[in-house]
Amino acid sequence: MRLSLYFTVLFVHSFLGIYSQGLRGGELSIDISSTQIASLDLQIYLENQGLDSVTVNWGDGTSNVLIPVNTIIPNSNIYVALFSSSHQYDTLGAFEIEVIDSFLLADVDNISNSSDKYLKIRDSLYIHDFSNDQVGFFSNHNEFSFIDDGALIHSLFSTEFNIYDFVTAEFIPFVDDGYTLPIADSLEVGVNGFYWSSPQDAGTYAFAIRLHEFRWNNNFTEYLKLGTKTRYMMIDIDSSMLVSNHNLIFQEKHVTIYPNPVKNYLNIKLVNALLQKNLQLQVTNLLGQSIFQQDIPVFEKEWTYQLDVSSFPSGTYFLTLQNGGGIVSRKFMVQH
């Protein structure tokens, strides 16, 4: 079953009137050339047509007004305004790109007085002496899956990035105040995806996910910050998507790993996990490269698996376990 997922990208808009655009979402992408030219692309999703322009503050004391280059309608209710621009930076360094627009969609369940709130995004951009094609999201804005056991999954991380890059992901507040994450038995985000188990109530819910991108310096002694990319989304949940908590099969609380740090064998312990099928186990390094993958049959509620990491180079790794709609991630360190 596919769900509609809408995002909110935030812009500085010259019009500050009381008319609500009913903004639902969008995303902003910026790439940097070797000559310090930033190329910007953005999409804004809204329920009411009529978004004529936005103003972008580039973080160096300059700003410019953008006019939509195209407007498309992905379905009968949602409009999409597309913008693009470029900007020449004079110096290397860190810049904060700020974009604001008004107003949010009314009656968003986890934002108080949402129709009175401005949409804001502040993405960081670090300009170095090399070009940088910013990491992107793997999925399109409407690619969101509802799994039969009550999990909603949205793929996030793109593989289109430099092999020396390292990316992290986190939830951030959707607005400056009056925002809370929805109540959930399990609500997780990582570079591989966004996972929401068993929504409690029907309604419209807002989420904001930020990627942080880093790259090794020329001497491979430290990571350089490249910037952030933020996706703001609103998800409509109807009663057919609600699943009681007892149907959740595989959750964060079911998994324990030890010792951590580890030298030879990492113990992966499952407790009270009623698994539907084989457990999919994967280990990736900081570059996002898969270094171990295996499907493991599990027949007991309490079970321990020993992963041999004696041949792994010392460093930080990510363990991902998946069963049905459940995904659990753990970070561990190997020290020899």
SSE string, helices as H and strands as E: EEEEEEEEEEEEEEEEEEEEEEEE
Report the total helices: 0
> How many domains in all?
2
The end-to-end distance, rounded to whole angstroms, is 46 Å
Structural class by SSE content: mainly beta
What can you see in these coordinates?
Helices cover 0% and strands 50% of the residues. By secondary structure, the protein is mostly beta strands. It has 2 domains: 2-241, no CATH class; 249-334, Macroglobulin (MG2) domain (Immunoglobulin-like). The strands form 5 sheets. Strands 2, 3, 4, 7, 8, 13, 16 and 17 form an 8-stranded antiparallel β-sheet that branches. Strand 16 (203-216) and strand 17 form a beta hairpin. The chain starts with a strand and ends with a strand.
Task: Write a brief structural summary.
With 336 residues, the chain is mainly beta. Helices cover 0% and strands 50% of the residues.
Give the helices and strands, then pairings.
Blueprint: E1 2-3, E2 5-7, E3 23-32, E4 37-46, E5 54-57, E6 63-66, E7 70-72, E8 79-88, E9 93-102, E10 118-127, E11 144-146, E12 151-155, E13 165-171, E14 186-190, E15 193-197, E16 203-216, E17 223-237, E18 255-258, E19 265-270, E20 279-285, E21 290-296, E22 303-308, E23 315-323, E24 326-334
Antiparallel strand pairs: 1-11, 2-17, 3-4, 3-17, 4-8, 5-6, 5-9, 7-8, 9-10, 11-12, 12-15, 13-16, 14-15, 16-17, 18-19, 19-22, 20-21, 20-23, 23-24
Fill in the keyword field for this structure.
single chain, five-stranded antiparallel sheet, 2 domains, mainly beta, Immunoglobulin-like
